[in-house]
Structure formats: structure tokens, C-alpha cells
Design a protein that fits this description.
The protein is of the alpha+beta class. It has two domains: about 5-170, 60s Ribosomal Protein L30, Chain: A; about 180-225, no CATH class. The protein has helices spanning about 5-10, 70-90, 115-125; strands at about 15, 20-25, 35, 45-50, 55-60, 100-105, 110, 135-140, 155-160, 165-170, 170, 180-185, 190-195, 195-200, 210, 215-220, 225. Strands 2, 4, 5, 6, 7 and 8 form a six-stranded mixed β-sheet that branches. A six-stranded mixed β-sheet has the order 14-13-12-15-16-17. A hairpin with a 2-residue loop joins strand 6 and strand 7. Helix 2 (about 70-90) packs parallel to helix 3. The N and C termini lie far apart (about 45 Å).
């Protein structure tokens, strides 16, 4: 058994289906106080969490049956935008202290989700009024090996006991640092998550540590400092 399946069985949590988004308000009698996603094998999840509410998107790697070659990109863009819109439309429920968790499948610690989808989630998260965005991984599993009653392939936001807690496959990540984005220099300045390039620019970003020539350096607009 897993934390999410136990909460669902007790009618205390809702689940978000693939290629859907939903949200809940923790203190409302009209909302369940927990929300999550089951059956993850190659999907991504965006969970925007505040002390008052949570908005969650379950983003599949594609749209089954679609003939549009860009449908997988549009899917990530649309679900990210819709989830962000819940937050921006409800600023009292999602104040600036809110936190965003973006969860991606990996193999050997490298994201297997399409880079275009990663970039769509990153760009969407940048439009949020809060800047606390954490990236987390889960190891890709064979869908046939995932049981709805187990913790495998789950993301769970639990607001039943006051301060909401966030779990990936029953591993708590509420306050963990997550996986870091890194600026590097490779002909151009690139912001990377694993092997995925999220941003690329000719000029160095200001006041940001960048890995250049085997050391960390920072550009203040006039001079470089190193460590």
C-alpha cells in the first residue's frame, strides 16, 4: 500500500488523470484535503503548493491518437498554462510564498521526458508570481509493474494535517532542494537541467554563478568574480 492509495481508499484524496489538471483547497469543506497522481511511468507532474491550496497537472508524453507532430509540446504548454492560471487567478490562496514542484521521469538521473516539454514547463513556471521552483526526479518504471495500490509512480500532496507535505513515491520532498539548474558556458551561456537546455544566451546572465573553464564564475556587468 502507499500513502496516496490509502488516502484515496479513505475518500480523503482526489487523483488527477493523465493529461488533466485539478486543484483543491485544504481548508474548504467542499474540497478534499489531499491530491495526487498515480501510474507515473514516463509522465511529468507540476504541483503548485501553498499552505492553503494545491494545483496539480499530470502531463503525459503525448496525446494518444493525435496526428499533430507538435501535440506533445502543446500538451505541456496548455496544462502548464492552465495550472499556473489557477494560481494567478487566486492570489490569496497562492501567495508569493508558494512553492512549485516539477517532477520528471529519468533513467540514470537524466530526464527522459522530451526536452521540448521540459522547456514548456520551465517557461510556464517562470510566469508564476513566486520564484521557488524545485525540480525532482523519479526513476522510470515499466507501466506493467505499477500497481494502483502501491507507492510506485505516485506524487502526493497531503494537506490533511496542517502544513501540506509533498511526496514522490512516498519519499517526502516538501523541503528538499531538488535537482539544481546549472548555467554553463559552451560557446554560448546555457541554463541546463541534466542534458536539457532551458535557456541559451550570448551574454552572461548577471549575478549568477556560471561554470566556465572548469571553475565557477559570476558576472556583475563589469567584472568577473570566481570561486
Amino acid at each position: 500500500m502507499g500513502l496516496l492509495s490509502d488516502a484515496v481508499d479513505a475518500n480523503q484524496a482526489k487523483t488527477v488523470g493523465i493529461n488533466q489538471h485539478d486543484w483543491t483547497i485544504f481548508y474548504s469543506n467542499n474540497h478534499l484535503k489531499a491530491i495526487g497522481v498515480q501510474g507515473l511511468s514516463a509522465c511529468s507532474v507540476i504541483a503548485i503548493v501553498s499552505p492553503h491550496a494545491a494545483a496539480v497537472a499530470h502531463i503525459g508524453p503525448n496525446i494518444l491518437g493525435s496526428s499533430n507532430p507538435n501535440s506533445f509540446i502543446e500538451l505541456a504548454q496548455d496544462l502548464t498554462r492552465q495550472t499556473v492560471s489557477i494560481c494567478t487567478a487566486n492570489p490569496t490562496l497562492f501567495p508569493t510564498g508558494s512553492k512549485t514542484h516539477i517532477i520528471c521521469a529519468t533513467v540514470n538521473n537524466n530526464p527522459v521526458v522530451a526536452p521540448e516539454q521540459v522547456r514548456a514547463m520551465y517557461q510556464g513556471a517562470k510566469t508564476l508570481p513566486h520564484s521557488n521552483v524545485q525540480w525532482h526526479y523519479y526513476e522510470q518504471s515499466n507501466p506493467a509493474s505499477i500497481s494502483p495500490q502501491s507507492h510506485s509512480g505516485t506524487v502526493f500532496v497531503d494537506g490533511r494535517q496542517g502544513t501540506p507535505r509533498v511526496y514522490i513515491e512516498d519519499r517526502e520532498v516538501t523541503n528538499t532542494a531538488g535537482n539544481s539548474l546549472m548555467w554553463i558556458y559552451n560557446v554560448r551561456y546555457q541554463l541546463k537541467l541534466g542534458t536539457v537546455i532551458l535557456e541559451e544566451t550570448v551574454n552572461p546572465p548577471l549575478h549568477t554563478w556560471i561554470y566556465v573553464n572548469s571553475r565557477w564564475s559570476k558576472w556583475d556587468g563589469r567584472d568577473w568574480s570566481t570561486q
